[in-house]
Amino acid sequence: MHRLERLDIKQLRVFQALLREESASKAATQLGLTQQAVSDHLRKLRDVFNDRLFVRKTNGFVPTPFAEALAVKVDKLLIDFNSLLSVGSFTPSTASGSYVIAATDYAQQVVLPALLTQLRKQAPGLKVIVRDFELDRLHELMESGKVHLALAFPDYIPESYRVLTLFEEQHVCVTSKHSSIANTTPSMADIAAYPTIITSPSRPNFKGSIDDWFSQQGLKRNVVISAPCFSVVPMYLETTDSIAFLPSRAIANLDVHTIQLQHSPNSFDVIAAWHPRYNDDPLQQWVTSLLEATHV
Question: Which CATH class is domain 1-89?
Answer without folding.
Answer: mainly alpha
